[in-house]
Amino acid sequence: MTHTVEKIGGTSMSRVHELRDTVLIGDRQNPYGRVFVVSAFGGITNLLLEHKKSGEQGVYAAFASGEDDHGWLAALDRASEAMLEAHRVVLDHPGDVERADAFVRDRLLGAKNCLIDLQRLCSYGHFRLSEHLLHTRELLSGLGEAHSAFVTTLMLQRAGISARFVDLSGWRDEGEVNLDQRILDAMEGVDPQTEMPIVTGYAQCREGLMREFDRGYSEVTFSRLAALTGAREAIIHKEFHLSSADPKLVGQDAVRKLGRTNYDVADQLSNLGMEAIHPKAAKTLRQSGVPLRVTNAFEPHDPGTLIDDQPATEPAVEIVTGLDLFALELFEQDMVGAKGYDATLLEVLTRHKVRIVSKVSNANTITHYVDSSLKVLRRVEKDLTDRYPSACVSSRAVAMASAVGRDLDGLAVLSRGLNALAEADVSAIGATQGPRPVDVQFIVERDALSASIKALHRALVEDRKAVLPKAA
Asked: Which residues does the chain have with pLDDT short of 50?
């Protein structure tokens, strides 16, 4: 196990020319022994699919809506222009720019012809467009990673690096293979010790990565590649360090880089919507015995934070974070001693694809803290009211602030946290601490989340005499 598998995210990829002489090459005597998995350039996937935050239509959303051909064709033109502009920022040699231009034209023309043929096919009654939308989404999404990987390979080759473009997107491939076989076939004959593989974050496979992971597929590809090739370490290069809180919220001088933590903490962060890595990707690395390192791509000499399966050397609150939620409450006076309410609630929430973050219950009330839109939650409330006409079903907007660490035993985080919130004039709606001392959750009014995180971080991290574990 002499090589690493490293991932560069989309925002960093837009500055990959800056990373060429730091992360990718740097001052190393030997730049090899590393495999890079790349995301699409920043903003490209939004144009190919839909905007992740605003929901503005990209090529896929316009095509799926089926309103008119003009919509998705115009969106494809916008994506093409953005891709051409993105690689012109990275490449400075005219020959490389010409090759990248040709690559974009070939791939997008192929995608355009494919979508036109699909529309023509589905004009016949025996074929339904809805049956092909997932494949269409994967086809379009894979264009972004293929483009960025190809451009990065050109850039490195121009700098004298023996870089190899490894395309997992299945472009014009015949037949279907599973994810493992897709990776193993593509990596056959590749020697990371003598060349630098640049691998697409999207991998076409029989399982259909977007079916389960949607736009989180690149971390799944990354983790599986690290596991299959027996990597010494998996590394994610982000635009920031994993810190004890959001520095924009509590102040740059107040936060502390984690330095070292474990997969248990990473799972808690994922549950709170602050993913160090997708939980399924973390599971793959953990089960394969591959440690994960998260670094700041623009501080290449900083070792970042190591995530492995080791326990803490001492109890400590490592991070304070939070997110907006809804509290979904089902009150039924006759619930006490009866069975089935909990199972029904879970069935309804699962059917509506509502993500449960936490839950509390007593004799006649079950409350789920959920990450959902209000529109979906109203449907859940209606289904529950139809099922239990005599119950009172309600929801309210709240927020959850959470203190997380590998070992919180003996730190009195619950009582100290409640005192800190009271001193900051924040009224806690609820608080939960499970038997395993890894996180303590505080439920507050939604507009009090920022104040709660600041107060908890000050009391549990900044004012603590013991220091956090040193960086690995």
From this structure: 465-472
Please give the full DSSP string across 244-294, using - where no structure is assigned. SS-HHHH-TTT--B--EEEHHHHHHHHHTT--SS-HHHHHHHHHHT--EEE
Spatial contact of 96 and 158, defined as CB atoms under 8 Å apart: yes
Residue in 203, 65, 183 with CA at minimum distance from that of residue 139: 203
C-alpha 388/C-alpha 203 separation (Å) is 45
In the three-class reduction of DSSP (H, G, I as helix; E, B as strand; rest coil), residue 102 is classed as: helix
Query: Amino acid identity of 465?
Result: K
φ, ψ (nearest 5 deg) of residue 145: -70, -35
Contact (Cβ atoms closer than 8 angstroms) between residue 170 and residue 141: no
Q: Supply the Cα-derived Rg of the chain in whole angstroms.
A: 24
Q: How far apart are CA 312 and CA 469, in angstroms?
A: 8
Tell me what pLDDT residue 464 has: 66
* Torsion angle of the four alpha carbons 296, 299, 300, 301, in this order, in degrees rounded to the nearest 10: -120
Tell me how far CA of residue 435 lies from CA of 49, 93, 358, in angstroms: 42, 60, 14
The model's pTM: 0.87
Closest by Cα among 274, 218, 288 to 1: 288
**In 418-429, which positions are buried (b, 16+ CB within 10 angstroms) versus exposed (e)?**
bebbeeeebebe
pLDDT for residue 471: 40
> What would the DSSP string read from start to end of 164-176?
EEE--S-TT--S-
pLDDT at position 237: 94
Indicate the helix (H) or strand (E) that contains 327: strand 319-331
CA distance 365 to 261: 36
CA angle 126–127–131, rounded 5-degree value = 140
Q: Report the 10 Å Cβ neighbour count for 169.
A: 24
Measured between alpha carbons, how far is 166 from 360 in angstroms, rounded to an integer? 48
Question: What is the H or E stretch that residue 320 is in?
Answer: strand 319-331
The whole-number pLDDT of residue 67 equals 67
**For 53, phi and psi rounded to 5 degrees?**
-100, -50
